[in-house]
């Protein structure tokens, strides 16, 4: 636990480090290309005025310097530094020195002496600060060299007394980055006294300049970040800084206090002005809570965020954060939450509020009321009510983290989270719904709370509603009235927003399966059955009726007594729904019902095992197909593909696997068909027609393999090998076909070359997997590789041809979890007959709303394509912010697509669909030669091809000619 | 008559409350700081209609003219108990010096004064009251200030305004002469609401902080529960086809509730109409639209897309609408159901149990509002008529004053040497005084 927390402590600050690295990286890039160092010398000598020299230096800085010439350049710069009188030029030189010492492959220890030397004679504060910065760069470049570090620390200490805040800032930064706390290093200290850096830095906590104070705290944090253990003594110093006048100081101090509290959670600190003592983490918690009502919102955000990670705090302190200790005219008052709870437990639910309902109760002892130093009291109440939504979001997040680690706190914070559902900013509302979902394991909603939660179902924002459905999926409800209420509200939601249908059904599925015993007493009412009379059969296609049935059937799964309450038509409807909405309706054991059992016998079997077995069996059957005659092979493949497809439709949880395997088999089928063509033995004039078929097959196999590789999530490396292998075969096929149809050798050379490169590439990428590919096409190919390299194209083609026909069918191992990426465009619906009219040459914005399932990294891969009737196709890259992530594996794209065209005479339809862009080089595991080479960032993001993965929607548009 | 909680009395700063020392109403405080005399607020008292309604300026005038004595007058916000006596003071008693207030206060103040004058003169028939012309003349003496703008009143005296929440344009003022300074808070609110932000002041360490203490002994519950309850009540009533009456005073809470309902309607896609009784309000809403910078974060950030005060769902009310079938929500003045439009509507709707009336604030004893809140179901109206109240009666308190915790928070923020409590009850102040001494 402690280790885990410590890790967290470090995590908090790693961001800072990364930023620095980035900075260095950009500078490095600038400096890596060659330039003339001698030219600089000449230039600088030529310079007549400081302004000139500055210009030359600026120009020089634009050009990069390679590692070998750095030393020379540094010497020249230093030489000029000594001569230079103008501080601005010296400043620039100092900064250049710092830049240069960061050059990769250059060891800056040689310039350190000079740098320290010039530092001692420097008078200008700005240059001094810059030189210290240079030293910092040098020091960070040589982390192992203790002596240098000590020396630098020494220099920094000397300049700490400088009058300029900039110099002091840099000194502290240097100390933070290079100083050490351990005394053990004395022996190799070479006469330099080892200093207690922490104490030195701590002294500057009371500097007169707020910037220096901030720098001192940051330096302290830097020490901590470097893994040095801070002493507990700074805790008191840091606490004093919490009441600093400047917000950046307070903000940094809050961080420092938090760090110390994580380092020494169990130490005991005295409470001032009393004899009591408390744990340090509790004390720190109280102090940070107090900062939640700070004057500056930056500090408030910081404090609220940090609260979330203080899991070690005692529960009694934690719970205070939600209690503001209300009073009215000095008498204790109950909060609305408490009253609601009492009302609920007294059985009087939802009574109207009366005048004086909140009348205060008992008198309070005035002495006992603590208004300000009550520490944690009501910190979250304040945070959640803050004016700035940034603070509110931070508070909600903190609440979430604390609630996840403490069930009792989760129970208590529920009321507050529920209140946040009514926040004025949608982001906050959404965040609190998500938070509630995350802690829903720890809580059970009371009826009045549920009531408030359900009220949000009418929200006009789809995001909110869907998040709420998601929440209801994993909520625990305590009473049957609660279930009834939820159902009624969800049905209301359904009538108001029919597009929510699927989400609501899914929600009811989980609601039913989680609360079978609560649903049971509701069944007669819900199905409106009557003990004596037959009631009218409800409409089977009514989404509301389906919703009710989904709830009931899922509850019935674990409640065997329920089916006895069903009427005949319910069973019929069950059979229908089980078949049409198999992902929502589970298999039920319905004894003695002939009607049902005969209709859907295959799927009524217990569990989903048989279907899985079926899948396995059919795949195994296929893998034995080598022993069959060609005709039989084809038939078997076709049959199996059909089976798999049907299975995928029936069993949604197996759809991914089934589709994946079916696609693979289809590739194989195509390959077999293409190889079987009589093409290989017919006379030349008939080639053309036949080869068309073969090359079409090759092309299709390529497409399918790309789909297999990129459209499925959960594909592992062993599948990727097989997929690539299949693609290689397709490429071989393509080569053969072209070889037979083209005349002349020259183009063939190039193609052979390219193919052999591909083989080589394949070998490099999947070298580890090659042993699994025995007897395969590539296995044989690699055996013959030396021969292929030297032979003529015609021979290569011949060898390939025979090998392709001889190669065995590779077994595709099934991954654990595999899902096919899919997308549904909700908006535009494509039903409108009214064309979107706009003036030609201008643009019209089309709202696109789509749900994406199982798409990895949608921000980079999902594109929108617009096809105009003239065949023109446009690809639109949606902004990363247009994607939302409502649940695991699901994404939602809400974006605007701009359409434009020249004037048309009459309205026409454009097609809109979603594409999945892929780039095969990004998927392949990086082999050393790729990493070593200079891969420009553009290659990484470029698009190799696209796969359409949604149905296209037609939109009627009409660009009108511009009016004159 | 004010007695603050200053532990050390400051010889160089003298404070004389002319009103609202230990009560609420006719706020008027005289501060002498390093030889400069500043008057803070100039309010009237709602409870009196004789001479006691205005502060007693004779305290100053017996020694000479107001203009000679006072260096400036500062008005914290537009509520009449803070600015109601201004025309009387400047035009009738006679003051020609500068009057400082914020821009929104300058804009809205004359509307309220005019309204007040109309009721006093036209309805109650009072003589010897200030005239419209006097209000105009008085407003000519006003100098408007921006937030955080340091205004040099003369070579030595400077003032600076801070945001105070409470109502649109409410400000706290720092008065500074040399190294000595006083902060006067006026009314303020430390918890943001739907249209205004929270009061804020920097660590200016004044010698004296004069703060209101209306809720000195109260710590309030989270506002969210109240809002949620309110919305739920209205929503339920509208859903069952009932009509909802919300009696309000024209400015302040009314706008908050409007925003609350407006956003709720927007969010929940509701269709039932919301009406706002016309008159004063339309003018006031206009100013709310203008002074966007004085509102809260949400409104400030979204006004580029849409000004939240450009109500989509809230329309002007016409008397004829009250008889329309179907659900509706009506905001009507005045707030205590003692007269005017709100009472008319109430009488029309009281008989139907589907309808509801929500009282968003305190009601004075004797008013219809107070009667129904205390549970009376049969009301005697004029002409011996008995009105049976079948409609639902709800009470919600939306108050915009800082509670005890808020006051402590502000005191903590400003870090004054001494604190002076005004605008509250003596007994309650005693408690807060103890607390401030104990905890700060």
TrEMBL record, chain A:
<dbReference type="GO" id="GO:0016180">
    <property type="term" value="P:snRNA processing"/>
</dbReference>
<dbReference type="Pfam" id="PF24493">
    <property type="entry name" value="INTS4_8HBD"/>
</dbReference>
<dbReference type="InterPro" id="IPR057412">
    <property type="entry name" value="INTS4_C"/>
</dbReference>
<comment type="similarity">
    <text>Belongs to the Integrator subunit 4 family.</text>
</comment>
<dbReference type="Pfam" id="PF25458">
    <property type="entry name" value="INTS4_C"/>
</dbReference>
<comment type="subunit">
    <text>Component of the Integrator complex, composed of core subunits INTS1, INTS2, INTS3, INTS4, INTS5, INTS6, INTS7, INTS8, INTS9/RC74, INTS10, INTS11/CPSF3L, INTS12, INTS13, INTS14 and INTS15. The core complex associates with protein phosphatase 2A subunits PPP2CA and PPP2R1A, to form the Integrator-PP2A (INTAC) complex. INTS4 is part of the RNA endonuclease subcomplex, composed of INTS4, INTS9, INTS11 and inositol hexakisphosphate (InsP6). Interacts with BRAT1; interaction is required for the assembly of the RNA endonuclease subcomplex.</text>
</comment>
<keyword id="KW-0963">Cytoplasm</keyword>
<keyword id="KW-1017">Isopeptide bond</keyword>
<keyword id="KW-0539">Nucleus</keyword>
<feature type="domain" description="Integrator complex subunit 4/Protein SIEL C-terminal Ig-like">
    <location>
        <begin position="824"/>
        <end position="961"/>
    </location>
</feature>
<keyword id="KW-0677">Repeat</keyword>
<feature type="domain" description="INTS4 8 helical bundle">
    <location>
        <begin position="613"/>
        <end position="815"/>
    </location>
</feature>
<dbReference type="GO" id="GO:0005737">
    <property type="term" value="C:cytoplasm"/>
</dbReference>
<keyword id="KW-0832">Ubl conjugation</keyword>
<keyword id="KW-0007">Acetylation</keyword>
<dbReference type="InterPro" id="IPR016024">
    <property type="entry name" value="ARM-type_fold"/>
</dbReference>
<dbReference type="InterPro" id="IPR056235">
    <property type="entry name" value="INTS4_8HBD"/>
</dbReference>
<dbReference type="InterPro" id="IPR011989">
    <property type="entry name" value="ARM-like"/>
</dbReference>
<dbReference type="Pfam" id="PF13646">
    <property type="entry name" value="HEAT_2"/>
</dbReference>
<dbReference type="GO" id="GO:0032039">
    <property type="term" value="C:integrator complex"/>
</dbReference>
<protein>
    <recommendedName>
        <fullName>Integrator complex subunit 4</fullName>
    </recommendedName>
</protein>
<dbReference type="Pfam" id="PF20168">
    <property type="entry name" value="PDS5"/>
</dbReference>
TrEMBL record, chain B:
<dbReference type="InterPro" id="IPR041897">
    <property type="entry name" value="INTS11-like_MBL-fold"/>
</dbReference>
<keyword id="KW-0378">Hydrolase</keyword>
<dbReference type="InterPro" id="IPR050698">
    <property type="entry name" value="MBL"/>
</dbReference>
<comment type="similarity">
    <text>Belongs to the metallo-beta-lactamase superfamily. RNA-metabolizing metallo-beta-lactamase-like family. INTS11 subfamily.</text>
</comment>
<dbReference type="GO" id="GO:0046872">
    <property type="term" value="F:metal ion binding"/>
</dbReference>
<dbReference type="Pfam" id="PF07521">
    <property type="entry name" value="RMMBL"/>
</dbReference>
<dbReference type="InterPro" id="IPR011108">
    <property type="entry name" value="RMMBL"/>
</dbReference>
<dbReference type="GO" id="GO:0160240">
    <property type="term" value="P:RNA polymerase II transcription initiation surveillance"/>
</dbReference>
<comment type="subunit">
    <text>Component of the Integrator complex, composed of core subunits INTS1, INTS2, INTS3, INTS4, INTS5, INTS6, INTS7, INTS8, INTS9/RC74, INTS10, INTS11/CPSF3L, INTS12, INTS13, INTS14 and INTS15. The core complex associates with protein phosphatase 2A subunits PPP2CA and PPP2R1A, to form the Integrator-PP2A (INTAC) complex. INTS11 is part of the RNA endonuclease subcomplex, composed of INTS4, INTS9, INTS11 and inositol hexakisphosphate (InsP6). Interacts with WDR73; interaction is required for the assembly of the RNA endonuclease subcomplex in the cytoplasm.</text>
</comment>
<dbReference type="InterPro" id="IPR001279">
    <property type="entry name" value="Metallo-B-lactamas"/>
</dbReference>
<feature type="domain" description="Beta-Casp">
    <location>
        <begin position="254"/>
        <end position="372"/>
    </location>
</feature>
<dbReference type="GO" id="GO:0016787">
    <property type="term" value="F:hydrolase activity"/>
</dbReference>
<dbReference type="GO" id="GO:0004521">
    <property type="term" value="F:RNA endonuclease activity"/>
</dbReference>
<keyword id="KW-0479">Metal-binding</keyword>
<keyword id="KW-0862">Zinc</keyword>
<dbReference type="GO" id="GO:0032039">
    <property type="term" value="C:integrator complex"/>
</dbReference>
<dbReference type="Pfam" id="PF16661">
    <property type="entry name" value="Lactamase_B_6"/>
</dbReference>
<dbReference type="InterPro" id="IPR022712">
    <property type="entry name" value="Beta_Casp"/>
</dbReference>
<dbReference type="Pfam" id="PF10996">
    <property type="entry name" value="Beta-Casp"/>
</dbReference>
<dbReference type="GO" id="GO:0005737">
    <property type="term" value="C:cytoplasm"/>
</dbReference>
<dbReference type="GO" id="GO:0016180">
    <property type="term" value="P:snRNA processing"/>
</dbReference>
<keyword id="KW-0539">Nucleus</keyword>
């Amino acid at each position: 636990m402690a280790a885990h927390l410590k890790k967290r402590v470090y995590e908090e600050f790693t961001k800072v480090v990364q930023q620095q690295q980035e900075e260095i990286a950009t500078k490095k890039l600038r400096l890596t290309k060659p330039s003339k160092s001698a030219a600089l010398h000449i230039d600088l000598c030529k310079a007549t005025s400081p302004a000139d020299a500055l210009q030359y230096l600026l120009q020089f800085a634009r050009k990069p310097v390679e590692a070998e010439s750095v030393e020379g350049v540094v010497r020249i710069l230093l030489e000029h530094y000594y001569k230079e009188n103008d501080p601005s030029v010296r400043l620039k030189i100092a900064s250049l020195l710092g830049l240069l010492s960061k050059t990769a492959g250059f060891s800056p220890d040689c310039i350190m002496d000079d740098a320290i030397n010039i530092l001692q004679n420097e008078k200008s504060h700005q240059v001094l600060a810059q030189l210290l910065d240079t030293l910092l760069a040098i020091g960070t470049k040589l982390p192992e060299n203790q002596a240098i570090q000590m020396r630098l620390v020494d220099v920094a200490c000397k300049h700490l007394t400088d009058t300029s805040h900039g110099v002091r800032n840099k000194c502290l930064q240097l100390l933070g980055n290079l100083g050490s706390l351990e005394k053990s290093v004395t022996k190799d200290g070479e006469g330099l006294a080892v200093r207690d850096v922490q104490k030195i830095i701590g002294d500057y906590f009371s500097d007169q300049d707020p910037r220096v104070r901030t720098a001192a705290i940051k330096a302290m944090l830097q020490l901590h970040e470097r893994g040095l253990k801070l002493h507990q003594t700074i805790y008191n110093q840091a606490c004093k800084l919490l009441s600093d006048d400047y917000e950046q100081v307070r903000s940094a101090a809050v961080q420092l206090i938090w760090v110390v509290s994580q380092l020494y959670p169990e130490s005991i600190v005295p409470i001032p002005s009393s004899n009591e003592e408390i744990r340090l983490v509790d004390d720190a918690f109280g102090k940070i809570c107090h900062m939640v009502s700070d004057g500056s919102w930056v500090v408030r955000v910081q404090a609220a965020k940090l609260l979330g990670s203080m899991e070690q705090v005692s529960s009694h302190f934690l719970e205070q954060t939600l209690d503001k200790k209300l009073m009215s005219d000095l008498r204790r008052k109950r909060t609305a939450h408490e009253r609601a709870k009492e009302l609920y437990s007294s059985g009087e639910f939802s009574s109207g509020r009366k005048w004086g309902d909140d009348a205060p109760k008992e008198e309070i002892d005035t002495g006992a009321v603590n208004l300000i130093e009550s520490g944690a009291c009501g910190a979250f109440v304040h945070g959640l009510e803050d004016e700035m939504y940034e603070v509110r979001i931070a508070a909600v997040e903190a609440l979430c983290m604390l609630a996840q680690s403490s069930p009792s706190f989760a129970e208590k914070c529920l009321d507050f989270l529920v209140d946040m559902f009514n926040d004025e900013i949608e982001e906050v509302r959404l965040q609190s719904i998500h938070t509630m979902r995350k802690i829903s394991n720890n809580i059970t909603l009371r009826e009045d709370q549920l009531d408030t939660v359900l009220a949000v179902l009418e929200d006009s924002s789809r995001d909110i509603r869907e998040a709420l459905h998601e929440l209801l999926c994993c909520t625990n409800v305590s009473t049957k009235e609660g279930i009834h209420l939820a159902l009624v509200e969800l049905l209301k939601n359904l009538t108001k927003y029919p597009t929510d249908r699927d989400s609501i059904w899914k929600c009811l599925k989980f609601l039913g399966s989680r609360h079978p015993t609560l649903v049971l007493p509701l069944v007669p009412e819900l199905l409106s059955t009557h003990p004596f009379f037959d009631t009218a059969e409800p409409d089977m296609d009514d989404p509301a009726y389906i919703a009710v049935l989904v709830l009931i059937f899922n509850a019935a799964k674990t409640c065997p007594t329920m089916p006895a309450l069903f009427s005949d038509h319910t069973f019929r409807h069950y059979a229908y729904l089980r078949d049409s909405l198999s992902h929502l309706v589970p298999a039920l054991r319905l004894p003695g019902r002939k009607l049902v059992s005969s209709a859907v016998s295959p799927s009524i079997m217990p569990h989903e095992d048989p279907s899985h077995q079926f899948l396995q069996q059919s795949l195994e059957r296929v893998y034995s197909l080598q022993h069959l005659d060609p005709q039989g092979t084809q038939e078997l493949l076709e049959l199996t593909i059909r089976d798999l497809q049907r299975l995928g439709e029936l069993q949604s949880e197996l759809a991914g696997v089934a589709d994946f395997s079916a696609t693979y088999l289809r590739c194989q089928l195509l390959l077999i068909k293409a190889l079987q063509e009589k093409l290989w033995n017919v006379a030349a004039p008939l080639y053309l027609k036949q080869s068309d078929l073969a090359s079409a097959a090759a092309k299709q196999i390529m497409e399918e393999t790309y789909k297999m590789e990129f459209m499925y999530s959960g594909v592992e490396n062993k599948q990727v090998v097989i997929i690539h292998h299949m693609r290689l075969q397709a490429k071989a096929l393509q080569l053969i076909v072209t070889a037979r149809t083209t005349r002349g050798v020259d183009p063939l050379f190039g193609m052979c070359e390219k193919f052999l490169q591909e083989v080589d590439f394949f070998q490099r990428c999947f070298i580890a997997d090659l042993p699994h590919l025995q007897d395969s096409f590539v296995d044989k190919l690699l055996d013959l590789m030396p021969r292929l390299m030297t032979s003529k194209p015609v021979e290569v083609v011949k060898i390939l041809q025979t090998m392709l026909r001889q190669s065995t069918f590779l077994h595709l191992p099934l991954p654990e979890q595999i899902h096919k990426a899919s997308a549904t465009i909700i908006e535009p619906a494509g039903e409108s007959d009214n064309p979107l009219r706009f003036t030609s040459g201008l643009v019209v914005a089309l709202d696109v709303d789509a749900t994406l399932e199982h798409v990895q990294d949608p921000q980079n891969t999902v594109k929108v394509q617009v096809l105009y009737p003239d065949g023109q196709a446009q690809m639109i890259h949606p902004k990363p912010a247009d994607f939302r992530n409502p649940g695991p594996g699901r994404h939602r794209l809400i974006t605007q697509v701009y359409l434009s065209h020249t004037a048309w005479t009459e309205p026409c339809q454009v097609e809109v669909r979603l594409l999945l862009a892929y780039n095969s080089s990004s998927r392949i595991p990086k082999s050393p030669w790729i990493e070593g080479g200079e891969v420009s960032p553009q290659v990484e993001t470029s698009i190799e091809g696209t796969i359409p993965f949604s149905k296209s929607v037609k939109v009627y548009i009409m660009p009108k000619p511009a009016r004159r | 008559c004010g007695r603050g909680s200053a532990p050390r009395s400051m010889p160089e700063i003298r404070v004389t409350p002319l009103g609202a020392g230990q009560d609420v109403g006719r706020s008027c405080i005289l501060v002498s700081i390093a030889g400069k005399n500043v008057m803070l607020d100039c309010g009237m008292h709602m409870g009196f209609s004789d001479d006691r309604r205005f502060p007693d300026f004779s305290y100053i005038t017996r020694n000479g003219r107001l203009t000679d004595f006072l260096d400036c007058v500062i008005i914290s916000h537009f509520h009449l108990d803070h600015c109601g006596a201004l025309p009387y003071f400047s035009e009738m008693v006679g003051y020609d010096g500068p009057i400082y207030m914020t821009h929104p206060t300058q804009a809205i103040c004359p509307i309220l004064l005019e309204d007040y004058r109309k009721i006093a003169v036209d309805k109650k028939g009072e003589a010897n009251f200030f005239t419209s012309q006097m209000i105009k003349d008085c407003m000519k003496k006003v100098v408007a200030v921006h937030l955080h703008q340091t205004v040099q009143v003369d070579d030595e005296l400077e003032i600076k305004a801070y945001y105070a929440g409470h109502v649109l344009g409410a400000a706290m003022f720092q008065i500074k002469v040399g190294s000595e300074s006083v902060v006067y808070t006026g009314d303020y609110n430390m918890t943001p609401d739907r249209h205004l932000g929270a009061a804020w002041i920097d660590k200016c360490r004044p010698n004296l902080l004069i703060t209101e203490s209306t809720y000195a002994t109260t710590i309030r519950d989270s506002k969210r529960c109240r809002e949620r309850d309110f919305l739920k009540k209205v929503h339920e009533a509208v859903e069952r086809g009932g009509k909802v009456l919300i009696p309000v005073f024209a400015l302040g809470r009314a706008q908050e509730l409007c925003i609350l309902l407006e956003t709720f309607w927007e969010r929940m896609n509701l269709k039932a109409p919301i009406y706002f009784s016309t008159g004063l309000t339309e003018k006031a809403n206009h100013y709310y639209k203008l002074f966007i910078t004085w509102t809260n974060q949400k409104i400030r950030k979204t006004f580029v897309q849409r000004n939240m005060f450009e109500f989509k769902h809230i329309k002007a009310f016409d008397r004829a609408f009250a008889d329309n079938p179907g659900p509706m929500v009506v905001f009507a003045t005045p707030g205590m159901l003692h007269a005017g439009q709100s009472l008319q509507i109430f009488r029309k709707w009281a008989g139907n149990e589907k309808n509801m009336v929500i009282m968003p604030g305190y009601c004075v004893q004797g008013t219809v509002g107070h009667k129904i809140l205390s549970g009376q179901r049969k009301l005697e109206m004029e002409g011996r008529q008995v009105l049976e109240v079948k409609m639902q009666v709800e009470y919600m308190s939306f108050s915009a004053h800082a509670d005890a915790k808020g006051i402590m928070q502000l005191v903590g923020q400003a870090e004054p040497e001494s604190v002076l409590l005004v605008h509250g009850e003596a007994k309650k102040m005693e408690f807060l005084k103890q607390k401030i001494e104990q905890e700060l």
